[in-house]
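Weekly puzzle thread! Below is a chain. First person to post its structure in token form gets bragging rights.
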Amino acid sequence: MPNRWKPNVTVAAIVEQEGRFLLVEENTADGLRLNNPAGHLDPGESPIAACVREVLEETAYDFVPEALVGVYLNRFTRTRTGDDITYLRFAFTGAVGTHHGWRTLDDGIVRAVWMTLDEVRACADRHRSPLVLQCIEDYLAGRRAPLALIHTDASVQQYEAAP
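Winning reply:
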């Protein structure tokens, strides 16, 4: 099988505090979009560790995952290139901790923003993907699975990039 299909693995955090959800506003090829704090799984890290890292990099908040909200498969066609991409997203919920306001946010991230559910729903046309709202809706529906469902073998942490 020379052209094996491999979806891009991503992680996302669904964070609610006092009735508001933590989102990021980011520059994309399609303009300014809103997303859950999210990003790609890097070599050598578990999905849980990737989510902790992405939340810190994109929002400057510490994050402690407490449960898996869901696993999502989404297909996307890039507007400018026509590339057909499939994403496999692990969405976690948990608690935010310290905000490190001195941190520089990831490239492309304009700001972290707290929004009510009504505000999130009202700007669905600005969401990076339909998963932004879907993950929040699943969180609100009480969907939770224990983190123990996700096993990362020790061999993953032993990853070494090729020279």
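Puzzle host: Confirmed. Bonus trivia for everyone else. The mean pLDDT is 93.
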